[in-house]
Amino acid sequence: MIGGDTNRMAIDAPVQRAQVENLYVEAMLLADEAHAAFAAQRDLGSVGGDAAAQIGLACESLKTTTRLMHVIAWLLHRRAMFAGDPGAGPEDSAARIGAPVAADWDVCAGFDVPVRRIVAASERLFERVAVLEAGWKAPAVTPVQALLARLEARL
Length: 155
What we know:
Layout: H1 3-43, H2 51-82, H3 105-108, H4 113-135, H5 143-154
Helix pairs in contact: 1-2, 1-4, 2-4
């Protein structure tokens, strides 16, 4: 790696860490809001006896939860990479956010406003993380990872 790239990554790392920490807090709060909002929508009977609406609510709840869990898993993996965890590498499957799980907005149109807001917020959060991932290079190898690699090579 060229010295300039190493210096750039060293400069960017604190910013990236702060972004990851802030996004993690945002994702966890949104996950709590999603749980509460979907439960309230279900419990208040907003979908009533309409079986199709109940199934739609369940499906969109699962999609939103899946979307948020992908974001949270990506953020936790990124945190582990920053911490130098030898089990968290840039080539791991968890290092990629993957394809988005799109909401069905025709179904979501029947939900209360808070639920629609949360679904939209989860899609925006996923998109933000995907954009970050696309623009970031893998962090430089930490001293711990370099030492482990040397030890592994000797064995």
